Amino acid sequence: MGIIETEGLTKIYVRDVIDTEFGRLRIRLTNRKTVALQDLSLDVQQGEIFGLLGPNGAGKTTAIKILMGIHFPTSGSARLMGKPLGDREVKKRIGFLPENPYFYDYLKGWEFLDFYGQLYGMDKKTRRRKIERLLDQVGLTHAADRPLRGYSKGMNQRIGLAQALMNDPEIVFLDEPQSGLDPLGRKEVRDIIVSLRDEGKTVFFSSHILSDAEMICDRVAILYRGKLQSLGTLGSLLSQSVRDWEIVLRGVSDEFMDRWRPRLVRLEKSDGDFWVIAKEEATTHELIREATAAGGVLIQLLPRRESLEDYFIRQVQGSPEPRGAAA
Ligand SMILES: Nc1ncnc2c1ncn2[C@@H]1O[C@H](COP(=O)(O)OP(=O)(O)OP(=O)(O)O)[C@@H](O)[C@H]1O
Ligand SMILES: [Mg+2]
User: Fold this and answer.
1) pLDDT tens for residues 77-124?
2) Which residue's alpha carbon is at the smallest distance from atom 10 of ligand 1?
3) Mutate to test the pocket of ligand 1, among 14, 38, 61, 224 (most ligand atoms within 8 A of CB)
4) What pTM was computed for the model?
5) Higher-confidence residue: 111 or 326?
6) Which CATH number covers residue 107?
7) φ, ψ for residue 70 (rounded to 5)?
8) Longest dimension (CA), the chain
9) How far is Cα 218 from Cα 165, in angstroms, rounded to an integer?
10) What ligand 1 atom has the least distance to the C-alpha of 65?
11) Of 48, 141, 189, 190, whose CB has the highest number of CB atoms within 10 Å?
12) Cα 64 to middle of ligand 2, angstroms
């Protein structure tokens, strides 16, 4: 049983739109519907770093808001720690960094965290210890006594992260935790996420910064226009994403390689070795078999994968084939 489970989650936003005409007064009330999430079924295991990935408008925030009990699904259901959404005891054991955190910007950094600590019913001594540790963890100790209104976007993101961790949650939901951060800030957030997993926590985060997800996620779900496009470990997703094969052969003749040339994407000779790119796995096997039978030696065999970024673009564009290697 997963620590986060959703089954057929669907969210349709309905907005009332008033059309008016002034010539001969006519007022019309219509509904505009957006299917933000369609039939989303997920199962996140305890201790995982799970990435919910997708471009703008894919439905990531909608999914997180439903899990946080901020929005209600139109249909479908979800459970956190085995309990239906909205369970009070569960709420105390989760942390949440919203996409656009609204901060009381007259509060100083530590006052802001202290405010949340009080909401969680923590005593003064525990709060102080926790705040010191968290400010250190997110690199804001130096700014503890400055009002939030003077914080940069990156500092806001960090203090938000500290807030999400104030109650020592078992599951942490982070909506675009890396947004607004420079590369160093993004690395720091990645390190924090990994350290949370090391502490045994489950991290569920959304992102469109795929390279960040690629480095740390145990599993990812790719959302597009509210629909789940794929779900799995990065390994399994990427294993379907071998672009081509790089082969280095030694001890075969020019004539032998010339016969193979039409079936290869690329063929070059350097220092007596042949450097080859083949598109198909079957071609690769056959070449290696024949080359070794002809007295050649396989020096190197390397599947060249597309990055998660390329994979993602292919998924959302729905193109049937991985992109070929440059010939
Ligand atoms: N409160 C709302 N009322 C009406 N439509 C909404 C509302 N919130 C979101 N939507 C629409 O639902 C769709 C999904 O939005 P959502 O914010 O969940 O996407 P997202 O993946 O988080 O995007 P982003 O990467 O921009 O944060 C979008 O088409 C959006 O315009
Ligand atoms: Mg969003």
Assistant:
1) 999 999 999 899 999 999 999 988 777 889 999 999 999 999 989 999
2) 36
3) 61
4) 0.79
5) 111
6) 3.40.50.300
7) -80, -40
8) 90
9) 21
10) 18
11) 189
12) 9
